[in-house]
Structures are given as C-alpha cells and as structure tokens.
Specification:
The protein is 42% helix and 13% strand. It contains 16 helices and 11 strands. Strand 4, helix 8 and strand 5 form a beta-alpha-beta unit. The chain is elongated and about 80 Å long.
Length: 364
C-alpha cells in the first residue's frame, strides 16, 4: 500500500499532465538545464520563463496544488492504488528504452508484475471464435509457465488473453487507454476486477480522471510493446492498432510472433504480412517458450504451480459432447476460471479423451 505521495512523484505527476508537452520534452529540458525535477519546481517564474516555458505551463508548476490533491485522493481511495514515477526503482526498466517514456504510471494491483517477464497477446476486437480460443489457450499456457501476459483490455483478443491468464501463476497486466477511473470498455469492468483480485495489475500513463480518447491508443500500444519481450499477434487486419503494437515491438528489437489463419479471412492479413516480414510463425506456445528457455526458471514455476488449486480433471468430460463445446460454454456451465479449464482440457487432450476442433473441443 502506498500511503503517501513523495514530493518528487508529485512534481512528475504535474509535468505529465501539462498539455501539448511530451515526456521527452521534459526529460530533455531537465538534462539540458542540468536540473532535477525538484529544482525545476523551485525556480522562480522568471527562471521558468527563461527556459522557454509558456505562461500556462509556468502556472501549473508554480501552483500545482489541484493536481497534487487529486492524485493524493485517488491514491488513498484504495489500497491497491500506486503511483510510480520515472525516477523510482519500481519503474519498469524496459520502458526506459522508449524515446518518450511515461513520466508516471498509475497502477491498480500488484506492481511487481511490471518487473516480470512479459509476453503480449494482441489482436482484433472482432475476432473469430477460433481466434478467441487460441488467445485464451496461449495465455493460459504461458501463464502456467510463470510468464506474465500483457494486453490492452480491449474487446476480442485482448480480453480473451486476460481471461486465459489472470488466474495463472504468471498473471496478467492490462494497459489502459484512459485513466483508471474510466475503464474501457465498460463490459470489461468485472474482468478488470478479477485481474486485480488475482494479483495482476492495471496500468495507465494517464491521470485517473482522464477519459478515453482515440489518440490515446497508440500511446497505450507503445507501452504494451515496450514492456513485453515479445508480441503475439493472433488475428488482425493490416490497418489496426494490433499491427501498430507489433511494428513497435519490431522497432524496439523485441520478438514478434504471428499465428497463421484462413487465407480467405481479412483477419489473417495482419499475421500473414508479419510472417512475410520476418515474424516467427507459431502454432503453439512451445514455439514461443523455446525462444526464452534461458529466462524460464523451472523450479520457481513448479513451486507456483503447486500453489494452484487442483482442477476437477475428468469431471469436465461430462460437459463435453461429441461435436463441439466451446470454452465459453464450459465457463458458463461450470463457473471455473478460463485458466483452470484450459489446463484441464490440455490434460484431457494429452490423455486422448478430447480433441481440439475449430471453436472449442469435442469428446473422443
């Protein structure tokens, strides 16, 4: 629990909320002037003007009380709330590789997830049933190995990825395109709650009271790409936010993975294009894991898996027919988390009791 807001963090919060100035501007200004952020706030108006700051910017720096009080109130509203500034040891090192890293991060949940090894799973908001099942399964399997799954809490593939990962040892991180007071979409409010309850984390570079704007999403996407060692694209059209995330990952020299699909579907155009450009074609999570074998501590993951509640393995067979039963149907019927269902289905599939089919599973 973060009980107070350090003076340095207060100052970074204020700078982050000044309109029409990027984080890169403030970092460059401080470096060029040889100032700390606290030095900047201690300068007189004349000194700030001499640095080239506009009157409205000088006004916020000299009278920051409103921003500080709003931030303090949000922080004290819930024990899961945290504010991390760019100078903090808790600030994710991977974000520092960005040209314009966020000055502050507003977090709800377990911020240790931000330091963990992360794989992003992204894709279309209008995904197919097969795409949704793939995202859930991949997320559940990665999470079971202790890898944190990161995405953007959007409809479609993002939501499926969070659903698959939130109850696993690796957990999940959701990067938002607006303030934490305005979860978007509203239909994912309960999903966001489950993420936090299961030791995951919601993150935004926007102040809690900032509403979602379309131009926020590219900024959100760059955080997803930077926090993750690799980005998995499940389904996406060529012109989409998910493709932006994948391209940003490539620009950062992070790995890009793509799941192939139906050659007649527009949702396969994005993954197929990335594969043509050098992304790794994947059909299972082992294709991802083999790239990071050096980073996976099997002993720690085994200990985490032991702490997971045992799943009622064969009892799920009673809910599966010979043609098709979707994961969504099993969730609604049994009330079990997606991660547990996926783990059981994998076991049943290996045992030869069920088989994966487009849209779900069928009993053998």
């Amino acid at each position: 629990m973060q009980n107070s807001l350090a003076v340095t963090t207060q100052h970074w919060c204020c700078l982050s909320q000044i309109q029409r100035r990027s984080p890169a501007f403030w970092l460059a200004l401080l470096q060029k002037a040889g100032l700390t952020v606290n030095d900047l706030f201690n300068l007189p108006v004349e000194g700030l003007t001499a640095l080239g700051l506009r009157p409205e910017e000088t006004g916020i720096i000299k009278a920051p009380q409103t921003i500080i009080e709003e931030t303090k109130q949000w922080l004290q509203k819930d024990t899961t709330h945290t504010v991390i500034d760019i100078a903090s040891a808790l600030y994710p090192a991977r974000l520092r590789q960005l040209d314009s890293p966020p000055l502050v991060l507003f977090c709800c949940g377990n911020t240790e997830r931000l330091q963990a090894m992360q794989i992003a799973i992204v894709g279309s908001r209008k995904a197919t049933v097969q795409g949704l099942n793939t995202a859930r399964r991949f997320a559940a399997e990665l999470g079971a190995r202790g890898i944190t799954v990161t995405s953007g809490l959007a409809l479609g593939i993002d939501g499926a990825a969070h659903q698959g990962a939130y109850a696993t040892p690796g957990g999940t991180v959701a990067i938002l395109g607006g303030g934490l007071n305005y979860l978007h979409p509203r239909t994912h409010t309960q999903l966001a709650k489950r993420i936090v309850e299961h030791d995951g984390c919601l993150v935004s570079e926007f102040a809690p009271t900032v509403t979602v704007k379309p131009y926020h999403f590219p900024r959100r996407n760059r955080l997803i790409a930077a926090l993750s060692v690799g980005v998995v694209l499940v389904e996406a059209e060529i012109k989409s936010g998910s493709m932006i995330t994948a391209n940003l990952a490539a620009e950062l020299d992070n790995d890009v993975f793509a799941v192939p699909g139906n050659i007649n579907s527009r949702l396969s155009e994005g993954p197929h294009y990335l594969i043509q450009q050098g992304a790794k074609l994947i059909t299972c999570t082992d294709d991802i894991i083999e790239e990071y074998a050096w980073a996976v501590d099997k002993q720690i993951i085994a200990q985490k898996n032991k702490a997971m509640p045992a799943a009622p393995n064969h009892s799920l067979l009673d809910y599966i027919d010979g043609e098709l039963t979707s994961v969504d149907d099993l969730v609604q019927t049994t009330g079990l988390p997606v991660a547990k269902i996926m783990a059981v289905m994998l076991e049943l599939e290996v045992s030869g009791l069920v088989t994966a089919v487009p849209g779900g599973y069928a009993r053998l």
